[in-house]
């Protein structure tokens, strides 16, 4: 797991306070809930005081026991987004909220309303995070309305010497809840843009959930004398959230631009490719992304100045690409560590102090 991502989480709290003041709950209702990641124990605040839209508050009141899973889902999603994009120009990070002028830079402010590929990824990874955390909680026996997948208990293939057992993750309840909690009905406005954007957001939410379902796998354990596999018990399990993040990153890289003119259903923007169907697991976007090179305070884009880059890499983390051709600064970082440690009889360890230097490059 990315340590930097974890360390960045507390910063959300500070942002959150500013955010709440900026957008009264409900206005940006479909993503306000992400802020729950920054509450230690959201149960203590009560549903009414959490950054939720009215539908979500209603759901929260009916099922308050789901709050820890909602928080965990938001945390999973944010952390995975940062980890998947840590080497890219857009690194799923918000503008460093410094000083009163910038204090109100919202969490993913621009990306959540802009209909870009980045918007698509955020929606998908967040919807997936919620499925994952709720399902975990079901399997852990923490919930009365869901548990392990009971449809499997009597099946299996006795002739091949295995049977279903243990606890199979049942994603159905998690999928249901993620839909209920996140999928706002398509806004019935005359403004065409916002209708297309809400349809695209809904699609991407579902694509995220489909990724969790698609990556379900089967784990088995052998029982029998001295490790022989005379009896085998198998159960279905969700993949690690990191794997799901990888799949979604791949979908992001192959995401499809759709036309901003909505017909009966969404269509590819590229006229030559209209015949190729859009699958429910594809990520969709409407607008081209900015290049994320330079800071734009208004859009909450921090730019890549000061980001650490890799001088020898040809990839997105290479100084050339990451710094957008502006060049980079180099400074030397001195490490001091204990080394050449020897055990001395008896009984202590004696070490030398070793110094090493590494070059660190940061974008101009
Ligand atoms: C289940 O509930 C226990 C006790 O409240 C908690 O410690 C644990 O983290 C929960 N597990 C999951 C997966 O939600
Ligand atoms: C949307 O609004 C129009 C006109 O205001 C109305 O006729 C239509 O039934 C509404 N559709 C939905 C799904 O609410
Ligand atoms: C920099 O990139 C090169 C080539 O991709 C890689 O081998 C190396 O480990 C990277 N260095 C760091 C510090 O990430």
From TrEMBL:
Compartment annotation: Secreted, Extracellular space, Extracellular matrix
This protein's record includes keyword Lipoprotein: yes
InterPro entries: Wnt, Wnt16, Wnt_C, Wnt_CS
Keyword terms: Developmental protein, Disulfide bond, Extracellular matrix, Glycoprotein, Lipoprotein, Secreted, Signal, Wnt signaling pathway
Signal sequence segment: 1-29
One GO cellular component term noted in the UniProt record for this chain: cytoplasm
Main location: secreted
GO molecular function annotation: cytokine activity; frizzled binding
Gene3D superfamilies per UniProt: 3.30.2460.20
SMART domains in the cross-refs: WNT1
Domain of life: Eukaryota
Listed GO biological process terms: bone remodeling; canonical Wnt signaling pathway; cardiac epithelial to mesenchymal transition; cell fate commitment; keratinocyte differentiation; keratinocyte proliferation; negative regulation of apoptotic signaling pathway; neuron differentiation
Function: Ligand for members of the frizzled family of seven transmembrane receptors.
Family: Belongs to the Wnt family.
Name used for this protein in its record: Protein Wnt
Gene behind the chain: Wnt16
């Amino acid at each position: 797991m990315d340590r930097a991502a974890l360390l960045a989480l507390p910063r959300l709290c500070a942002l959150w306070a500013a955010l709440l003041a900026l957008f009264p709950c409900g206005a940006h209702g479909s993503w306000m809930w992400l802020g729950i990641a920054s509450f230690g124990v959201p149960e203590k605040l009560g549903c009414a005081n959490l950054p939720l839209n009215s539908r979500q508050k209603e759901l929260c009141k009916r099922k308050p026991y789901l709050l820890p899973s909602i928080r965990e889902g938001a945390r999973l999603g944010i952390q995975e987004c940062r980890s998947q994009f840590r080497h890219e120009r857009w690194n799923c990070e918000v503008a460093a909220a410094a000083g009163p002028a910038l204090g109100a830079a919202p969490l993913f402010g621009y990306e959540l309303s802009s209909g870009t590929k980045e918007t698509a990824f955020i929606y998908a990874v967040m919807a997936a995070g919620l499925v994952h955390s709720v399902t975990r909680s079901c399997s852990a026996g923490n919930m009365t309305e869901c548990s392990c997948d009971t449809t499997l208990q009597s099946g299996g293939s006795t002739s091949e010497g295995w049977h279903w057992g243990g606890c199979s993750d049942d994603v159905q309840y998690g999928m249901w809840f993620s839909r209920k909690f996140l999928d706002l009905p398509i806004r019935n406005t005359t403004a065409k843009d916002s209708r297309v954007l809400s349809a695209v957001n809904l699609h991407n939410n579902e694509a995220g959930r489909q990724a969790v379902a698609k990556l379900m796998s089967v784990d088995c354990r052998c029982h029998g004398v001295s490790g022989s596999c005379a009896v085998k018990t198998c159960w279905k399990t969700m993949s690690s959230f990191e794997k799901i993040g990888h799949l979604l990153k791949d979908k992001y890289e192959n995401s499809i631009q759709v036309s901003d003119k909505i017909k009966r259903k969404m269509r590819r923007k590229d006229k030559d490719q209209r015949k190729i169907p859009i699958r429910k697991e594809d990520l969709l976007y409407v607008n081209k992304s900015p290049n994320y090179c330079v800071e734009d305070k208004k859009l909450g884009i921090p730019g890549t100045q000061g980001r650490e880059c890799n001088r020898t890499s040809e990839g997105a983390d290479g100084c050339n690409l990451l710094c957008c051709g502006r060049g980079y600064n180099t400074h030397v970082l001195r490490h001091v560590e204990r080394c050449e440690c020897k055990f001395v009889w008896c009984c202590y360890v004696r070490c030398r102090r070793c110094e090493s230097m590494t070059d660190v490059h940061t974008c101009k």
